[in-house]
Amino acid sequence: MTPTTTAAKSSSRQAAQGWSERMNWKGKKSMGKALVCNRDETTTGGHVIAKASTMFDGERRIALDREMATCGRCPGEHPIQGTGTEMDEDGRASVLDGDQVLCPCGANHVKASPDAGCST
């Protein structure tokens, strides 16, 4: 093995360790729900604004509890109540299909993209 290969593997291991310290996958086997990502829609015509997570579904950032979403009925941005406790990052649950957006109308929920590649 060349020194370059050894260094690359060591660097890869360190990156994986850092990732596993930030992200906690509880690994329960269940049917699961799709994870919601940045720019996914809501039931009232709004969209998800995910900025905090270091986890991605393809090129789209996965949304975490207390990230924001807009509502087609209520002005402004409102927090999402993430319920994906089987997969969290730094203690923040992931946002799953159907989770509630805490806006004044009370009718707004997030919808995972039809092509979502991740679920819990």
Shape: globular
Largest sheet: 3 strands, antiparallel
**Secondary-structure element pattern, one letter each:** HEEEEEEEE
Mean pLDDT: 83
Work out the count of structural domains.
1
Rg over CA atoms, rounded to whole Å, is: 17 Å
Based on helices, strands and strand pairing, what is the structural class? alpha+beta
Spatial ordering of strands, largest sheet: 1-7-8
Portion of residues in beta strands equals: 15-25%
Contiguous low-pLDDT stretches (5 residues minimum) are 1-22
Helix content range: 10-25%
Q: Write down how many β-strands occur, each being a DSSP E stretch of 2 or more residues.
A: 8
* Number of continuous helical runs: 1
Distance between the termini: 38 Å
Protein name: PAAR repeat-containing protein
Pfam family, one: PAAR_motif
Summarize the entry for a quick read.
The protein is of the alpha+beta class and 120 residues long. It has one helix spanning 3-22, and strands at residues 23-25, 48-49, 56-57, 60-61, 68-70, 77-79, 84-89, 92-94. The protein contains one helix and eight strands, in the order αββββββββ.
